[in-house]
Amino acid sequence: MIKVYENFDFSRVGQMQSLLESHGIGTFIRNQYGSSVMGEVPFVEVVPQLYVLRERDVDRAIELLQLDLPRDNEAGDWVCPECGIDVEGQFSRCWKCGLGRDEE
Ligand SMILES: [Zn+2]
Fold first, then answer.
1. What is the pLDDT of residue 56?
2. How far is the CA of 73 from the centre of ligand 1 (A)?
3. pTM for this entry
4. DSSP state of 19
5. Which of the pair, 68 or 100, is modelled with greater confidence?
6. Is the confidence at residue 87, as pLDDT, over 80?
7. pLDDT value at position 36?
8. Helix intervals (H) in the chain
9. What's the 93 CA to ligand 1 centre distance in angstroms?
10. How is residue 28 annotated by DSSP?
């Protein structure tokens, strides 16, 4: 399996999975139930991650994911230039590093 996407927002990862599945690409989400994983797990390990099952589908999967990104921007979401993470349009600052939307 090859990881093609990850996001703290599980619904986002689910959307991406639906997108890929609708194009006939077999996928698998790891850490979907991260909170129930046994033992001590570092927080970074429970970020939902989207995997593609077949290696030959990876290029197409990444292409589809990138095509989907501009639609996020229309919805008002933006990507923090510092962390590279998605921030919802309702927030004017990155929730991770505090960088403002229009700051560099
Ligand atoms: Zn940031």
1. 96
2. 16
3. 0.55
4. H
5. 100
6. yes
7. 47
8. 10-22, 58-74
9. 8
10. E
Distance 89 CA to ligand 1 centre (A): 14
Distance between Cα 53 and ligand 1 center (Å): 31
- CATH code assigned to 2-73: 3.30.70.790
Q: Which residues contact 30 (CB under 8 A, 6 or more apart)?
A: 3, 48, 49, 51
**Alpha carbon distances (Å) from 61 to 5, 34, 65, 90, 91:** 10, 24, 6, 28, 29
Q: Quick one: tokens of 18?
A: 């639906």
The yes-or-no verdict on residue 33 having pLDDT over 80 is no
Place of tokens 């403002």: 100
Sheet bearing 27-30, strands edge to edge: 2-6, 49-52, 27-30
The residue with tokens 């197409």 is 60
Token duo for residue 46: 């429970």
